[in-house]
Amino acid sequence: MKFLFDDESFSFEALRAAGYIAYAGADLGEVLVTCRQIPEGDEAAWSARWAATAARVEGIGRDALAAGHRVSAREALLRASNYYRVADFYRRDDPAHDEESTRLAAASRQTFADAAPLLDTPARAVRIPYEGTTLPGYLFLVDDSGVPRPTVLFHGGFDSTLEESYPAIAAGALRRGYNVLAFDGPGQGAPLRDQGLTFRHDWEAVVTPAVDLALSLPEVDGERLVLIGMSMGGYLAARAAAFEHRIAACVLYDGIYDLHEPFTAVAGLAASAEGGLDALTAHNTQARWVVRNGRWTFGVSTFDEVVDATKAYTVAGVADRITCPTLVLDAENDQFFAGQPQRVLDELTCEKELVLFREDEGAGEHCHEGALFLFHQRTFDWLDTALAAA
């Protein structure tokens, strides 16, 4: 789905940013006026223009907060947080030593942290114990009654952040009576940037401590605990659910059978390109980002090492250990994992269903960007039915 840019990666990321309009994470005019100032494929301009928009909108939020306008402050700070995330997206050449990348990521976290207490039911920052340290999370509650409710455990994937979890899943869940415990794991957000924690394939080591924390909270109905993983999180959640059986239902958003395959495909493109990987990444925005983000999030120096590291990231041989009802989502035009959700479904032996989101309904992009309402409707309607049956 072309959106504002011919560059496929720019188009997708602009659509992703704009899609959060659904839950006050963006405003269409701000997206349009920002994108029209960015030349095709110009990553420096992308970062600068989104950062400028983020700073301007943050100023609106700060002024509204100082004047006592709670809703206006909340909405502006939520938009600013998303825009700062977008501004940092392509800064992956050396993010650990890129001062501007560090600043943008911190600004995205801080603006969200300042918006969280302004939600109708304030979000609660939590720390999840994890192997001698902690992982950051937010507990989003439907209300302050303390009534135990069905609760979603949510994590992202290859590039998503904790703060993105609010428009991506939590806002829609809250409207339907679900609490949400969202968190960043190794390879993601603050654990990667601040603690140097990189991805691991055995994601049950990450989810099990989150389950432990969730079950200690009075607001959580321990019999109705749901795990949802976004993007690469579709593999991570499946892996965790295969070993963590306190989960009542699982949603793979979307299904990933073998993470190694798309990275091998990029390596194949590099091998066939005149000039190799350097030539490919010089002219292909998506490949350049995949290579750079992969090196950082997996904690390696070369793309060959990234490709080798992803060999362990497959549900082959473990999917049949998932015992809870599982919803596998698919996107007709997925540019990363085409065909993989069906392969996951075929491996599952639990109660299962696959839902295909189509291009002709505006939902065919990876993770159904631009179609949040449809994604939430189908996902939570399925969960309502699955949890009621259980």
Automatic annotation (TrEMBL):
Pfam families: Abhydrolase_6. Residues 152-366 form the AB hydrolase-1 domain. Signal peptide: none annotated. It comes from the Bacteria. One of its GO terms (molecular function) is hydrolase activity. Keywords: Hydrolase. InterPro entries: AB_hydrolase_1 (IPR000073), AB_hydrolase_fold (IPR029058), FrsA_esterase (IPR050261). Transmembrane segments: none annotated. Coiled coil: none annotated. Belongs to the AB hydrolase superfamily. FUS2 hydrolase family. PANTHER family: CONIDIAL PIGMENT BIOSYNTHESIS PROTEIN AYG1 (AFU_ORTHOLOGUE AFUA_2G17550) (PTHR22946:SF12), DIENELACTONE HYDROLASE DOMAIN-CONTAINING PROTEIN-RELATED (PTHR22946). This is Alpha/beta hydrolase family protein.
